[in-house]
Every structure is written in C-alpha cells, then in structure tokens.
Please model this.
Amino acid sequence: MSDVIPYTVEPHPVTGVPNPKLGIWLFLASEVMLFGALFSTYVLLRVGSDHWPRHTETGLNVPLATVNTIVLILSSVTVVMAWYSLKIGEFGRAKLFVAATIACACTFMVIKYFEYSHKFHVGTFPSTSNFYAVYFTMTGLHGLHVLGGIIVFSYLLATSNQWWQQHPEQFTNRIECTGLYWHFVDLVWIFLFPSLYLL
Amino acid sequence: MQFRWWYPFPFDASKHGWEVDRLINILHVFMVVLFVGWAFFMMYCLVRFRQRAGQKASYELIHAKPSKVAEGLIVLFEVFLLFFLSMPVWAKIKNEFPEENPSDPARKPLIVRVVAQQFAWNFHYAGPDGVFGRTDPNKAKAGAGNPIGLDYSDPAAKDDVVSPVFHVPAGRPVIARLTSMDVIHGFHIPYLRIQHDVLPGMEVKIWFEADERKIPPPPPPAPDGTTREGNAEVVCAQLCGNSHFKMRGAVVIETAKQFAAWLQMKQDEKNVKFEED
Amino acid sequence: MSSSHHREEQHGGHDAHHPQLGFWRKYVFSVDHKIIGIQYAVTGLCFLLFGFCLMMLMRWQLAYPGQPIPIFGRILPASLVNAGVMLPDFYNALGAMHGTIMVFMGVVPLAVGGFGNYIVPLQIGAPDMAFPRLNMTSYWCYFVGGVIMLASFFVPGGAAASGWTSYAPLSVIASMGQTFWLFGMIFLITSSLLGSINFLVTIIQLRAKGLTFFRLPFFVWAQFVTSFLLLLAFPPLEAAGVMQLMDRLAHTNFFVPSGLVISEQPLTSHVGGGSPLLWQHLFWFLAHPEVYVLILPAMGIVAEVIANNTRKPLWGYRTLVYAIVFLGFMSFIVWAHHMFMTGMGTKMSNFFQTTTMIISIPSVVILTCLILSLWGAQIRFTVPMLFALAFLPMFGIGGLTGLPLGLTGADVHLHDTYYVIAHFHYVVAPGTIFALFAGVYYWFPKVTGRKMNDTLGKVHFWLSLVFINGVFLPMFIQGMYGGHRRGYDPNEYDLYKNFPAMLGLVKGISMSAWLLGLSQIPFIINFLHSIWAGEKVTQNPWEATTLEWAAPSPPPHGNFAMAPVVYCGPYEYSCPGRPHDFWPQHLA
Ligand code: HEA
Ligand code: HEA
Ligand code: CUA
Ligand SMILES: [Cu+2]
Model:
C-alpha cells in the first residue's frame, strides 16, 4: 500500500535521518534566525545608546539566574538520560527522567515567575528602559519556548505507556527530537544569561 | 518646457539633475533594446514554431552562443552603470559636500534646517549671523507663529527666519539638514532631483544646487484665475499619517538677489513684531 | 495510448482499504495534502479577489477625488466615508490592507500553500506530505491570521493604515488596527514557517525511487528554494512583529526614538531611545526574500507549462536550477535597496547597489533559458500556455524596471513614486498572477478530472492582458513625472496642477483597473462552472511527462496505487526513437 508515509521512524538511506529529525533541525534553523534577530536588536540598541546599564545597575538577580542556568543544564542532561534509557530498553527509568526534565523546566519557570513579579513589584516594566524592553522580550519569548517544551514533554509522558508498547522506536525517536529542541532552548538561555545578567 | 509623454521627466532646475536624468535615460535605452531584442526573438519563435500537424519538436537544444554573449554584455554594462554613473551621483549628493567657507563668498553654501512634522514642512534659516537659534520641539506652537519651537531667549535666534515656503537661491549650494519632530517623512523636490528620508531622532544632511540658468517658470494660473506660490514643490514621500497627501510645500527658486531681498523682508517683518511685543 | 493504458491498471479498487472518514475530517480538518491544497488555493483566490476589490475602491478616489463613491459610498459607515466620499484614513487602510492581503494572504497561500501542497507530493511520487497534521495546522494558522486581518476592518479606527511596510514610529502610535495586523502577521508567519519545514522535509525525504535532485521538475526546485527563503527570512520579521507589539502594548521603545512631539504634544507614552531604522532593516530582511517567494513558484509553474506546450525539453535545465539556487541565496543580501533614502553611508549603499545588480543576472538567465526553450518547438497555444507566454515579457518589464530602482543615482528621483508601484506590479500582477492563472488552467484537470472551458479562458486571457497593461504601463510615466504613491488626493499636488493632463492619465488607469475587474468574470464563471460541468478528461489530458499525471484525476487518498519509480528526467518530450512525443518519468 502506498499511502503510508515512508521514513517516519526509520532513517532515510541517503540523508541518514528520519523525517521528524530533519524537520526539527530545520525548525531549529528558523529558531536561530528568530533569536538571531533578537540578539542583533540587542547589540544594535546597546551600541546605539548613550547609556546602557551595566550589570551592576540593572538590579537583576544574578544568583537566581545562576540557579536557573544550572537547572536548565541539568534538564538537558536528564533528557539525554531519558533517551539513552529508552535506547537500552529501560522504559521505567526513561519515564522518571522525562518527569525530572519537566520538573526542572517547571522550576525554571517558577523562578522566572519570582524574578518577574519582583520586577513588577518594584516598578520595573518593559517600558522602563530599553534594557528592560530587551530583557522582558527575550526572556519572555524564551520562557514561552520553555513552556512549549513542558507541554510537549507532558504529552509524551502522559501517552508514553501505550506508545512505548505499540511503537517503541517511534517513541524513542520523538523523545530524541523533543530533546534536540530542548537543547536549543537551553542553548539560547546560555547566551541570554551572560548577555543580560553579566555584561 | 514642453511636456513630452515619451520623456516624462519633470522640469529640471538643479545642477546635478542632468546626471540623474542621464542615468535614467541610458538605462531605459538599454532596457528597451534588451526588451525589444528578446521580444522579437520570442515573437519569431511563436510564429515559426507554432504547432503544425504531423510535425515533431526537435529534441535537440540550440547552441545559444549569442545569448551567452548577450548575458555577458549585460553584466559588463551593469558594471559600467554601477561604477561610472550611479555611484558618483550618489556619492556627490551624500558625501562630497561643498566647502562651508570657500574663498569665493558667493559660493558659500546656504545652510537650511528642514524640520518636518505631521503634516507640514518648516524651513529654518539662520539669518545674517549664520548661527541657528536653539530650538525645543516641546515648545512648538504653530498657532503662535513658532512651529519649530525656536527659543527666542537665545540671541542667535533673533535673526532666524522660519518659513513654510522653501526659498532657494539659485547658483549657490544649499545644504539641507533634515530632521523630523514626529514620524518618518520623505523630503522630495522632483524639480531638483533630490530626495531623502527625514527621520525623527537624527539629523541627516544632503546638498544640492539650483541652476541660475534654469529657474522654473511661475506656475500657470488655475482655471478660476487663482495663482499659486512657488515655482517648484516639495512633497512628502513617506507615508506619515492620514494627511500625508497634504504634506507639501511651495518651493521658490529665485536669484540670489531675490533671495536676499526675501530674507531681509522676513527679518523686517519679524522685527516689527518683536517691537510690538 | 499504451502508456496511459499501462497506468490505468495500477489503481483498480484502490479506495477499498480506507476507513470512511466523516465529513469534517475528510473535507474540513483534513490531513490529506490535496484537500489542504484546495483549501489553501480557494482561500487564496478569495483573498486575491477581495484585495483587488479594495484596490478598485481606492482607484475611485484617485480618479474622482472628493466625489462620492457610487453605491459603496452609501453602504459604508460614517467612520470610513463622509457624505459618500472616502476619508483619508480609510484610503490608507485600504492601501495597507491591499498590499498585505495580496502578498501574504493571496499570492503566497495560493502559490506555495495551494499549488505547492497539491502538486509537489504528486510530482515527487509521494503519498502525502511528510507531516500531514502539521500541514493541517499550518492551513488553520493561515486561516486564523486571515480572520484576524479581516476583523481588523471592524475595530475602532479601522484596519492598519501605515502601509504594508508598517514603518515605525508611525505604526507604533497608530490605532488599534495595527495591533490586529501584527497579531495576524504572527499567525501568517507561523503558518508559512510550518509549511516550509514540511515542504523541505517532503522534498528531501519522500522523492520516489530514481527521482534524483536533477530529475526533479523545475516547479519542485522552485518550491524547494522558496521554502528555504520562507524558513530563514520570516523569523526575523516574527521577532520584529513581537517587538512592535511590545512597543504598542507594553510601551517599550525598540523602534521609538527619543523626543518625539506629535501634533505639538510631547509623546508621553514612550520614553524613546530606540531606532526606527531597526524596524526597516528587519522588515526588509524578510520582505525582499519575500518578493522572490512571490516570483519563484510562478517561474516554476511557467517552466512546467512551457515545457509541456513546446513539446520539447527545457533549455538549460541545470542552468535553471543553479540560477534559482543562486537567486535564493542572493536574495538575503540585497534588502537595503529599499532603504537607499534612509541615510545609510555610501559604502553600505554601494554594497547593496552591487548585490542588487548581481541578483538581476540569475533572473536574466532564467528568462533567457525559458525563451530559448521556444526554439525548435511545436508550440500549442493552450490557455495555460498563453498565460505562461505572457508572463515572460511582463516579468521582463517588471524586472528590467527594477534596475533603475536598484541604482541610487536613479532611485533618488524614483523612490516612492508610482514608478516603484509599476515596477513591482509588473512582476506580481501580470507576472505572478498570470503564472498562477496558468497553473489553475493547467492543473485544474488533475484536481477535478475536468477541463476548464477554452473559449472563456481565451477571453479571460486577452482582456486581462490588455487591461492589466492599461493599468500599469501609464504608471511608469506618472512615476517618472514625480507622482507619489500613497497619495490620497492627486489634486493637492502642484505637479499635477501644472500639467492637468496627467490627471487624465490617472483616470485612465482607474478605468482600466475596473475593466480588468470585469475581465475576471469569465474566469470566475469558468472556474465555478467547470468544477461541476466541465468537459471530462483523461488522467493525462496535456500528455505531460511529470509524475502528477501518472496518478488518477483526482488522485485518491495516498495518490498512487503503487509507489512510482522514476527512470528519466522530467521533460522527455519529442525524444527521438520513442513512439509518442512525450515519455513519462515513471516509464522505463
Ligand atoms: C515578485 C516580486 C519582485 C521581483 C521579482 C522583484 C525584482 C527586482 N526588484 Fe523589486 N520590488 C518588489 C517586488 C519585486 N521585485 C516590491 C513589492 C517592491 C516595493 C515594496 C514597497 O516599497 O512597497 C520592490 C521594490 C524594489 C526596489 C526599491 C525601490 C524603492 O522603493 O525605491 C528596488 C531597488 O533596488 C527593486 C529592485 C529589483 C530588482 C533589481 C529586481 C531583479 O530581481 C529583477 C531582475 C529581472 C530582470 C532584469 C528581467 C530579465 C528579463 C529579461 C532581460 C528579458 C525580458 C524580455 C522578454 C521576455 C521579451 N525593487
Ligand atoms: C502580490 C501582490 C499584489 C498584487 C497581485 C497586486 C495587484 C494589483 N494592485 Fe497592488 N499593491 C501591492 C501588492 C499587489 N498588488 C502592494 C504590496 C502595494 C503597496 C501597498 C502600500 O503602499 O503599502 C500595492 C499598491 C497598489 C497601488 C498603489 C496605491 C497607493 O500607493 O496609493 C495601486 C494603485 O493602483 C495598486 C493596484 C493594483 C491593481 C490594479 C492590481 C491588479 O493587478 C489586481 C489584479 C488581480 C487579479 C487579476 C486577481 C483576480 C482574482 C480572481 C479573479 C480570483 C477569482 C476567485 C475565485 C475563482 C474564487 N496596488
Ligand atoms: Cu510626511 Cu508623508
Ligand atoms: Cu527588494
């Protein structure tokens, strides 16, 4: 029958990847352009401004952000562990690792929430200065990406039992793709953290 | 000048305009030649190779040396246009500003601040002292005769003239310093072949020179007999809001003598007003 | 015909093993690329018609400024018209929405979403797109974006009125319609991004056995490059859209410089410190590749139709492919030719002039290849071929007139005049739109199993050709004379007062535009009538070689009964030693 779409799971003999993985790479390419535009904006505004606040003047909470950085890096590790566990067939452990990833992501969001609400509390808004405009826009968009990751991982976790039983390979594959996305989200943060908090 | 449909340029009153027109003209000749050449070839094919019963198209592709030669020539020609005709014109308008203090005082450029706002042009002349008075857009009150917020407490402002009509002395370089109070506008004087965007938050400079031998004629009276001011016009080229279309001003291109007289008259008017105050 | 006989055998009793889907899943929330393609195409056509209607309304104001609009003047609410006369704000909204609708909601969805979706999987012998559900999502994103854009006409202050370019800071201080525009754009962009990923993966992964990259029909190549442009150029505009939204809603200052005084009131909502030029850079970084998104699929369609109707292989297939790839690459580094007048230094402008001249070369090469393909042909003047042939000189005029705009020395006089309007309409209207018409006439039999009427088609073609030139040719004159675009009332300008005959020309343009509108009636009738009552045709009525004609018309779910295998290049027409003057790709 010809209406089965090929290479949804098994790699294409020439490109060496299945469709979803190629798709996610292309998606990440477009994400690079998205955040690239935002970072360029940041650089342009910073270079063009008379006074750009130094990290000591911004009042951003570096310790909290450091914690967040660690949490995100940790979550990148757990995602790899989840994928690896699936590869060696340990479904139970994989589930735990996915859950741990979600937990890390949620921790990140909660900390971010405290940071934001503190800012609003002391009367700092995106309109306060261009620095804060950049700060809120970029971390906000990044936060949305984290949220997206949480949703996808939760969906994968919720449907994992059935999925693993019926199409273990496909499931592994989906975890891998989501993991790629997740690494990217992590990477963006690793750029954001120094440029917003430390420079 | 008689308008010709096949040569639809507006009047050219500037010294550099012929270079712009020449570039456009050469390009259009080039474009027409290319287009006609291609079109001729195409029409010929359409007639000669129309489908006929019992015939088969040839599988072979023609060796199209001429087309490769043509493409090569196009490239060369574009290079020529680029480096010899286009870049110099632009570099002149943008970079090669006239000396501000030349040995010949008659060549001393006139510096004008052009302040754009929704939906009007204001032309700010420094007056005899050659120094612009301080301005503060926040104090602008068109109703009180001060559309750009000139600060009269500044001595340099005393002899400044602000006019909605752009008086241009012919035969003398004019440097226009363009700024906007609100949104982006576009400064375009078709008769002078000069155009530049006017951006808020920054000042850009351009220059041009009206040709004293090509002063445009006064505008013809309207059918109802009313006359208009200005023998040229500055229009706003960038969409800047609902009355963008109304944002135009009269330009009076005149001899240096007439210009001086006008400036003097404006100053006298102002002094009368100051004395009244 | 032996070959079509051969194909008929392949799909007996094919539909049997498919579970019946309900109406909603089958026709509305379908994941089948063909249904989605039709949805895209029909929605796109409707938007094209709508965008055109907006323009016909505008042309009234230009031809008869200050006179009440017939009929519509009475229907439209008082916020848009005063005593039947169009208000300037409404004019600007119509202009901005015409541009937006035509570009983002008309041509791209029809050319990429419609033709791309329907034809690409068929031409590469795939059962569907790589990600059917993503495909559906991208259509519905487009739909939502379209609805938001349409809704913006009804919000206080009307639809976005800052031009399709939405230059800041005007757009930042504009009325609510602009916010809708930005939200709409974000949906449209997301839709295009999802779509482009899908196309790329489909073309890379799902090609039939034997279908190497250099055996792909040129249309697929065009879609491939187009998808790359969408994928990489759109995200910066998405970022810019988010920033402009922040400027409008959260009062940030990305694009708002300091010290603005609006109508003698200091702007208190924004402290300033941003850069209006930043918006322009981000916008044109997208919008220049975007204009190639408008033209490449059109070139693809024209190439298909020309190869089929000349009955011979395309001249220089590989050259075409290299040219289009190069074109795609170059289109990322010419964007600032739209910004020559903003005060960039001469170094920058020299760079962008040079790249602009370079990018015109591959276009010349593509056109040359297509024209040389006519030599030694047996040209069939079918309706799609007429449109495809007309595309060549029309695109030629549009492309050639891009050259003066690309040279600063000439652009200094021509920028933002009707010359620019004429330039790009020649490429998008008698260019792209004609190519799209060619595509509709050409692939209609594949989609419906019926042919569109020839006579009506020819009437449509000749009338459209005459009137569309009647619209855009005079605009070059108007523009060179210094007539500016986006001018609500030509009577205001001295330029026209000095030479009133020019206003007659403007009137003539409007008349031509309305007649062009009337000329579309045969098309609409033909289109609707042929869906149900067109002449029934075989699977391969044009005797074409590419794979889509190897599937039944309309193709069933899954497209091919057996996965096709490809043995030769896409345009094996009039090959010596073959029994027919065409040799389909899937025949050994
Ligand atoms: C599909 C869309 C499309 C295409 C393909 C192009 C193609 C080109 N465009 Fe155009 N352009 C637009 C859409 C397009 N443009 C739009 C929408 C705008 C305005 C946006 C706005 O401000 O609102 C614009 C504006 C625009 C500007 C800015 C003008 C200004 O605002 O001042 C410039 C300047 O460089 C430019 C240049 C070019 C060039 C050099 C090409 C080249 O790629 C063209 C190369 C092609 C050729 C050189 C033709 C070759 C053919 C032949 C030689 C043979 C012909 C003969 C026969 C067949 C008989 N364009
Ligand atoms: C793809 C892009 C596209 C297309 C196709 C068109 C098509 C047309 N455009 Fe437009 N236009 C723009 C993009 C486009 N335009 C843009 C970007 C601007 C700038 C906006 C701005 O200033 O911000 C502009 C501006 C613009 C202006 C300048 C306004 C001004 O500056 O004040 C004018 C003036 O005449 C104009 C006219 C027309 C006309 C007469 C057509 C005609 O050619 C239309 C012809 C259309 C058809 C022939 C389609 C018919 C469709 C059907 C018949 C479908 C049938 C449906 C079914 C069967 C279901 N356009
Ligand atoms: Cu000012 Cu348009
Ligand atoms: Cu461009």
In short: The radius of gyration of chain C is 24 Å. Strands of chain C lie at 81-82, 85-86, 261-262, 265-266, 450-451, 535-536. Chain C touches chain B through 100 residues (CB under 8 Å).
